[in-house]
Amino acid sequence: MGNTKNSYTQTKKKALIFFGVLLLLPPFLLGVRRVRAEESSVRLYLSPKTESVTVGDTFDLSLYVDTGGQTVNAIEAELAFPPDKLQIVAPSVGKSVLDVWVGQPTYSNINGTIGFRGTILNPGLKTQSGLISTMTFRVRSTGKAVITFTNGSKVLLNDGKGTNVLSDSSGATLTLILPPPRGPVVYSPTHPDQTVWYKNSSVSFTWDVNAREESYSYVLDQEPVTEPDNVPDPNRGEVVYSNVADGTNYFHIKAYRNAASVWGGVSHYAVNIDKAPPAQFSINIEPSTRTTSRRPIITFYTSDSGSGFAYYEVSVVSLDKRPDETTPKNFFVESNSPYIPELIPGNYNVIVRAHDLAGNIREVTQRLTILTTARELAGWVTPPSSAVFILLVLALILSAYLSWRWRHWHKKLSTLSVQPVVTSVPVVPVQRPQGVTMEAQSGSGMVNKDMLEALREKSALLQEYQKRYGHLVLAIFFVFGMLLASPLRTLAALRSSETEPPLVLSVPSHVQSDELFYISGVYAIPEAIINIYLQNDQTGETSTFAVVVDKKGNWFYSNPDFLNTGTYTAWTQAISKGVSSPPSAQIKFSVDAAALSVGSSRISYEFVYLSVSVILFIVTVSLLISALYFYRRGRNKHDTLIHEIREAQEAVHLGFAIIKRDIEAELGVINKLKISRPLRIDEEQKHRALLDDLREIESTIGKEVLDIQVATGR
What we know:
Elements: H1 2-40, E1 42-47, E2 50-54, E3 58-66, E4 72-80, E5 86-92, E6 100-101, E7 106-108, E8 113-119, E9 130-139, E10 143-149, E11 154-157, E12 166-170, E13 172-177, E14 186-187, E15 197-198, E16 203-207, E17 213-221, E18 238-241, E19 247-257, E20 262-273, E21 284-286, E22 290-291, E23 297-299, E24 309-318, E25 333-335, E26 346-356, E27 361-370, H2 373-379, H3 386-414, H4 449-468, H5 475-485, E28 503-506, E29 510-512, E30 518-522, E31 529-536, E32 542-548, E33 554-558, E34 566-576, E35 579-580, E36 587-592, E37 595-598, E38 601-604, H6 605-676, H7 681-712
Parallel strand pairs: 1-12, 2-13, 15-20, 22-27, 29-36
Antiparallel strand pairs: 1-3, 3-9, 4-8, 4-10, 4-11, 5-9, 6-8, 7-8, 10-13, 14-16, 16-18, 17-19, 19-20, 21-23, 24-25, 24-26, 26-27, 28-30, 30-33, 31-32, 31-34, 34-35, 34-36, 37-38
Helix pairs in contact: 3-6, 4-6, 4-7, 6-7
């Protein structure tokens, strides 16, 4: 009983110890993980991270290393800075955690780089803020200066392998400002904010005039802390500069103090000017600018080397006349690339505006056509150019010629036939002299000259047929096939002041008569009324339309009806709070005929062209089928005629062989007569004639054999 109780007590203790270990284990493991995480975070950083520094002053920036609880033995740090704003004065190596420098620190005030390399002797370095070096910079101009670590920076672990354990780096951001004014207080009504970029290149400066300061000296340049000369300038209290160069310009002014007869301190004022729009760019549309996809992917990209890029605005303008409920919104929307609109079939202009920080705008337009599936399929039978259209017409003419030629051939063959040739040639009995027997002649008879000539003529006729209807050339089929095999593709394919006129940005120079005219631009005053004037140069008729400027300063107008063909002049004028602006510059554009007008409807030339092309294509195919039909029928009759010609030639050959046999029999009779007596004169003449006929027949038979072999391909 005692043993059982002790066993229970021991089991209970073991259970308590086990659960206690389970409760303590997670915090322990978490602590181990935290320690390992801290050990793995090795970083380089600059101090101070942020600071405001005056132009012309120097400041120190320190480089530190945090080993994250690990031991390191080598450090390589490379930094980049803007050389137009900062310059290295001295990279100090006085106090440092590095024991051995691998050469002196290197720097370049042209490229804006500085580098440090060094090692630590054993047992290495473990620290949270180890000073590597202190650098001294001088400020050259105003603005923001960011100093960063490059990818060449390394911190090597003291593990005998040189493992790079650098996992983080943090640079410094400096605000560079002008020194406080020591002279007259300067202000610019045209460029009031010294940190903002403007596109206006006409700059005015004003300053407070002090009665005790009789004269002033000032200068405008691109150096931040220039001191004007001691020669007084004529203007007092205000000066205006026109066509100031792009970039950051500085106005410097000082006053001559009569009481002390000395020049006072200098005040500086910065103006940022950028008149150039963002860089030229293109609009890419996937899968194509002519597509059945109703969600095309529109991509674009540009940059600005002056004030810097700000944002994009995109508009997809419908060129088709459609019900209002299906018309996409034509106003510009701020968007990034890619832009994916939801569109219905029709023609569009995709307009992308790129804005920079100074308010300059670069606008690019790309045509987009959303096809229905039927239009896309129709495009494959519509020639893409007039040249291919001409080829299609030539194909039609060629098909018509082939159809006529082969039909005529078939008709001619249908009237031809070869009369059967009797294989047994009838012979005329030979008039034998008296007393002569002709037992040796079997079936012999007198040679008929007319029969021989008839056989020759028939042979010649057969040979002529053979030459006339030999092998046909099929090269024309190859060319025509190549013409039809190639797929035929479709053609179907700034803010301004109150007194300034509206700025027009989008207006097509050429409009098709089946496309809607549109015009858009910007104006400084939201909710202002923009009057758009449209004058027909031929008739002098002028139409007026009004739109309202939106909150962003954009305005847009699309004519609801198609314009008649001709040249037009458009201009705009703004009205705000009853005050009218001057008219804008006049813009010329033309409306070109691209459709047949039937009342208010338009039948596009593309549709007419497509219809004619389809008709030509169908007629061409029909003629080709007809030509192939007559060619096949003619070929069959040709083969039949060739077969009959071969049979006739064989029959002629057999006839000549029979005639030869009869002539030889006649010669045998005459030779027997010569043995018994001399031949009479008429018998001698007959003998010579038979010999001549025999030689000619033997020659003819040999030629006929050859002709038959050639004709039959043996």
